[in-house]
Target: Sigma-70 family RNA polymerase sigma factor
Amino acid sequence: MPLDEEVVEAIYREHGAALRRFVLSASRDPQLAEDVVQETVLRVWQQAPDITGSLRSYLFRTARNIMIDNYRKAQRRPAEVMERELADPAVAVERVDELLNRVLMEEALLRLSTEHREVLVALHYRRFTVNEAAVQLNIPSGTVKSRAYYAVRALRTILDEMGVER
Model:
């Protein structure tokens, strides 16, 4: 299959910076990050017709898998492990998974309405009580409860559409 440069460029333009930040937050190695981003874009381009759901989610999951594969390969080469001082692979996989979950949750939250997102952020990220959230958002407590209920339902639907396992 010939490389469609326009498609690859569009993927880089739209998602490259976010992917690079994600990989760098896990590896702290700019060259490795660039290699992972390039491999990710190529793999996703090859799978493009089969992708269902969010392209961005698929990109991040693919980058996650590539990073985990790289950690495992490095474990089989002791000299390289010593040179790079890689962390325990289980810890590395856990860290990458945590970062991926954070990225996917941010994407899902951005797809919510502003009202729903504000309530969820106030209750779950800022750890406000219902009454504190009501004061902060300048809405009645009952409205906070109602929006929270519908926001969680909407968030579940979005996460399902993105193919995120709960």
Summary: Confidence is low (pLDDT under 50) at residues 80-86.
